[in-house]
Design a protein that fits this description.
The complex is a heterodimer of chains A (517) and B (199).
Chain A: E1 7-10, H1 14-27, E2 30-36, H2 43-47, E3 50-55, H3 66-75, E4 80-82, H4 92-100, E5 104-105, H5 110-117, H6 119-128, H7 146-159, E6 163-167, E7 177-179, H8 182-200, E8 205-209, E9 215-223, E10 229-241, E11 244-250, H9 257-273, E12 278-286, E13 292-298, H10 305-312, H11 316-323, H12 331-338, E14 346-353, E15 355-356, E16 362-363, E17 366-367, E18 370-372, E19 379-383, E20 390-391, E21 398-406, H13 409-422, E22 424-426, H14 432-440, H15 442-445, H16 453-457, H17 460-480, H18 484-488, E23 490-492, H19 502-513
Parallel strand pairs in A: 1-2, 1-4, 2-3, 4-5
Antiparallel strand pairs in A: 6-7, 6-8, 9-10, 9-12, 10-11, 11-14, 12-13, 14-21, 15-16, 17-20, 18-22, 19-21
Chain B: E1 14-18, E2 30-32, H1 39-50, E3 70-74, E4 91-97, E5 100-108, H2 109-128, E6 131-134, E7 139-144, E8 151-152, E9 157-163, E10 166-171, E11 176-181, E12 188-189, E13 194-198
Antiparallel strand pairs in B: 1-2, 1-5, 3-4, 4-5, 6-13, 7-9, 7-12, 8-11, 9-10, 11-13
Classes of the chains: A alpha+beta (517), B alpha+beta (199).
Chain lengths: 517, 199
């Protein structure tokens, strides 16, 4: 039996840092948080056993500084590093530096990050083990050479337009272009390659057929250092905007047991071919013709890992901490894997983000003034926010992950509706109204999902206009003496009457000033 | 908390408008309450608008039309964009309806009428005054597409602000000539910071 870690450096911030601190504390492992100047008073800093400042707010000068993070790990005598997701989580150079410093990297080994981080390489691996990837090319596309581009246009023709130009090192929709005809191919290759080079330091791009009305389905994987890999069920993450997920659920609705077993087996085959260890996720597209196409493997804990935990009963971070010591897959993991195709619960997550769903999900950083999160049976909220905290423009706009679990999908949707009704956020616009819409949308209830869902169903401007009318009326009635507004429908935090004197105005201003900032 | 503290002790008509610049859409102000609008009517109006499906007296509405969740908060400044334009006697509120956030000004309707009459003459003049383009969100200026002296059309791209890993294009609110460009690429800006001036 391997011994567990003594002290873990958490090279991240926000809700995922808190998630990891919680797992460490339950295991009796000490946690060391890091923070930039923007996060000095943040929740993850206060919750950890120790904390270290790593630089100014800009990620490149703080959370992305490999040298600084390793220095903190050394100073605090850590024996392992958990990267969370985002930032350095999938950066092979970081994993390698951690390994070379004699510490454990809580994630797949650096050579696996190298191998799967190159999406072209992952596509080739899938082909080697007989797993169908999205139709497309398998080597880097030539950029700027007219003859090579003419040849590539013929390949694109055989794949079938429209095609997507994607970055080999990419993710999150960066370095991606949609190409509808051969004439657009040359410029799109140049633009995507330049964007990829700027974002990832690697300009290699490739072609993939665009599959419309597909669903995004992914498989949670856990592997040990001895080559054993198992699937812990799948998630449907089809509801997206800008290729980023908004709603996730586990299991994927409407799959037969045979289909579940098939996608789990394919994910495990690709992972074993890559000699994967620790936690990762294999992503697939599921077409309307019920075909699975492999997309890529994300070599980290996913944002949406919590819904798999709610369905499987596992604590994935705890398993990560165990696997990283060199322990084999635990009995609990094997048991959960054996039940992965027969889920007995249904879980849904919505990502509350600082974005305006009425303005095409434009970012809305600012200070959260009011913050009430739901609770009660079957509800889990992972968040690093509290009232008075600023959502900084430097970082990801995720402010809370609201998860629910129920006996089946209908029960989970009903519970999500109830939980969203309890949610109150003031100070910044969030995606809350969008999720209220999703919960009530017949297409969602029917499980009619695709990656085009938001564009096909959501009219943010109309929803905003309707709410604006109600907002004006509610404010007017509250001030003009319509006390029933509060009694019938809402909550009034501020005294709404006009201050009649300057004394009262000054008193009110002073009271407001006492709000935490 | 008490909400039934009406202006001057009785239900009075109030004018409700969105704080200028606080929302992408423009909505005309509405007048709520007043002598013609009795207490009973007012109560019905609340229910008709805020509790769809229950106003006609047919009992509880269908599950698909739950009551609207309303939250009223004091409107506090965000960044450097503060509700400075609160007219004397008006109050500024943040209203959150079903998760949608609005910044509104509420003032006595009679007083609002007087003020509007006084300022009406200035509206025409305002359209020829310089337009200041300010940052709606804090972030980093990724690129500047225009320079002093450039003629711009309404909707012309001016600059790009990067926030939360996203590029947000700022466009000209009206046609004119750029007389000032206050920021350069790489600069961090706060909400409300002046970016360019169009004349």
């Amino acid at each position: 039996m391997t011994t567990q870690f003594r002290r873990v450096l958490i090279a991240n911030r926000g809700e995922i840092a808190i998630r990891i601190i919680r797992a460490c504390r339950e295991l009796g492992i000490e946690s060391v948080a890091v923070y930039s100047d923007a996060d000095a008073g943040a929740l993850h800093v206060r919750m950890a056993d120790r904390a270290a400042r790593i630089g100014p707010p800009a990620p490149a000068e703080s959370y992305l500084r490999i040298d600084t993070l390793l220095e903190v790990a050394r100073l605090h005598d850590c024996d392992a590093v958990h990267p969370g997701y985002g930032f350095l989580a999938e950066r092979a150079a970081f994993a390698r530096a951690v390994e070379e410093a004699g510490l454990a990297f809580i994630g797949p080994r650096s050579d696996v990050l190298d191998s799967l981080g190159d999406k072209l390489n992952a596509r080739r691996l899938a082909r080697e083990v007989g797993v169908a990837a999205v139709p497309g090319t398998l080597s880097p596309a030539a950029i700027g050479d007219p003859e090579a581009i003419a040849e590539l246009a013929r390949v694109a023709q055989s794949i079938g337009f429209p095609v997507l130009v994607k970055a080999a090192a990419g993710g999150g929709g960066r370095g991606m272009r949609r190409v509808a005809s051969a004439a657009e191919l040359g410029p799109a290759l140049m633009a995507a390659s330049a964007e990829a080079a700027a974002a990832f330091g690697d300009g290699a791009v490739y072609l993939e057929r665009e599959i419309t009305r597909a669903r995004h389905i992914e498989v949670q994987l856990l592997g040990d250092a001895y080559g054993d890999v198992v699937a812990i069920g799948e998630r449907d993450c089809s509801i997206q905007r800008r290729h980023q997920k908004l709603v996730e659920e586990a299991p994927a609705p409407g799959l037969s047991r045979t289909e579940r077993l098939a996608i789990h087996a394919r994910a495990v085959a690709v992972a074993k071919a890559a000699r994967l260890s620790n936690a990762a996720t294999a992503e697939f597209l599921f077409t309307p013709e019920r075909e699975f196409f492999f997309l890529e493997v994300n070599t980290r804990l996913q944002v949406e890992h919590g819904i798999t935990e709610l369905v499987s009963g596992l604590d994935l971070v705890r398993e990560q901490l165990s696997l990283a010591t060199g322990a084999p897959l635990s009995a609990a993991v094997r048991e959960a894997a054996s039940r992965a195709a027969d889920p007995e619960r249904h879980a849904i997550e919505v990502r509350l983000t600082a974005e305006d769903p009425g303005r095409d999900f434009a970012p809305t950083p600012g200070i959260v003034r009011h913050w009430v999160m739901p609770s009660g049976p079957g509800v889990r909220v992972d968040s690093g926010i509290e009232a008075g905290l600023a959502v900084a423009p430097e970082y990801d706009n995720l402010i809370a992950k609201l998860m629910v679990v129920g006996a089946d999908r209908d029960a989970a949707i009903d519970r999500l509706g109830r939980a969203l009704r309890e949610t109150e956020i003031g100070g910044i616009q969030t995606t809350l109204p969008f999720y209220r819409f999703v919960v009530g949308a017949p297409a969602f209830r029917a499980g009619d999902l695709s990656t085009d869902w938001v564009g096909e169903h959501w009219d943010g401007a109309a929803a905003w206009r309707s709410a604006a009318g109600q907002a004006r009326l509610a404010a007017g009635l509250a001030v003009s003496g319509g006390g029933p507004v509060a009694a019938a429908t809402g909550r009034v935090i501020a005294p709404a009457a006009t201050p009649s004197t300057r004394w009262r105005a000054a008193g009110r201003a002073a009271a407001i000033d006492r709000w935490p900032r | 908390m008490s909400t039934g503290d009406p202006m001057n002790g009785s239900a009075r008509a109030v004018r409700v408008s969105l704080v200028p610049g606080s929302a992408p859409g423009v909505l005309d102000p509405i007048t709520v309450g007043g002598a013609a609008d009795g207490a009973l009517q007012r109560h019905d109006a609340i229910h008709a608008t805020l509790r769809p499906g229950q106003a006609d007296g047919s009992g509880p509405g269908p599950a698909s039309a739950p009551p609207v969740a309303v939250l009223l908060l004091p409107l506090l400044p965000q960044g450097r964009r503060s509700p400075a334009a609160v007219p004397d006697g008006a109050i500024a509120l943040e209203v959150v309806v079903d998760g949608w956030r609005f910044e509104v000004l509420v003032e006595d309707a009679a007083r609002a009428d007087l003020r509007e009459r006084a300022t009406r003459g200035r509206v025409a003049e305002a359209s020829s005054r310089p337009a200041e383009v300010r940052a709606m969100i804090p972030g980093r200026v990724a690129s500047v597409a225009a320079a002093v002296g450039d003629a711009v059309e309404e909707g012309s791209p001016l600059l790009v602000i990067e926030a939360m890993k996203m590029q947000n294009e700022i466009r000209a609110p009206r046609a004119g000539t750029l007389t000032r460009v206050v920021v350069e690429a790489g600069r961090n800006v706060d909400a409300g910071d002046l970016l360019v001036v169009i004349e």
